[in-house]
Amino acid sequence: MQRDRINEPYAFAEQLSAGPLSIVFASVTAGLLMVTVGATETLGEVYRHVNFVDVSSESYAAARVVYDVGDGAGHLARLIGAAYVASTAVAILTSTLPRRRLAWIGFALAGLQLLNAPYQIFATSHRSAVVGSVVFLAFIVWVFVLSIVLVLAMRRGTTHSAGATMFCRAP
Asked: What is the pTM assigned to this prediction?
């Protein structure tokens, strides 16, 4: 009896040798983004009704640590997100033409993310927040579109091309 590969959570990663690397980068990116959101939410919850004039130096130091952890995790998530996009693009580069186009768009997005990461660290203007938001939204859209394309391909049983031997495992 053949297993139903559509319902397996890592069917894509099992079929492509670069797929597991993509799963690792996706997990790390998601974890770092959760740390960023958690730190920001914690600061909002703890200090929402506090007058900043009345904050003690110990409390300010603790808040600064939480802020720095969240901010650092966000910066690292940008770099790891670029690695996720690039590894996923490599994994799908050997597939059919529509997915190859998504791979090339992914390479462009990974390059944009690599340029954006240090820009977000060193920039001090409001424009950096806008640029960071646009790049992050492009990342979310790319992942969403790619997810739809891969789910449809797995349902049709066309996850990779027959001649792709460099990145694909034998069935």
From this structure: 0.69
CA angle, 133 then 18 then 5, to 5°: 100
107: which residues sit within 8 A by CB, 6+ positions away?
Answer: 85, 86, 89
3-state SS track over the chain = CCCCHHHCCCHHHHHECCHHHHHHHHHHHHHHHHHHHHHHHHHHHHHCCCCHHHCCHHHHHHHHHHHHHHHHHHHHHHHHHHHHHHHHHHHHCCCCHHHHHHHHHHHHHHHHHHHHHHHHHHCCCHHHHHHHHHHHHHHHHHHHHHHHHHHHHHHHCCCCCCCCCCCECCC
* Model confidence band, residue 91 (pLDDT cutoffs 50, 70, 90): confident
Residue 2 has pLDDT above 60, yes or no: no
Q: Which amino acid would we find at residue 168?
A: C
pLDDT digits (tens, 9 = 90+) for 5-61: 444 445 555 555 556 777 788 888 888 889 988 988 888 888 777 776 777 777 788
Measured between alpha carbons, how far is 26 from 14 in angstroms, rounded to an integer? 15
User: Residue type at 94?
Assistant: T
Phi, psi of 161 (to 5 degrees): -80, 155
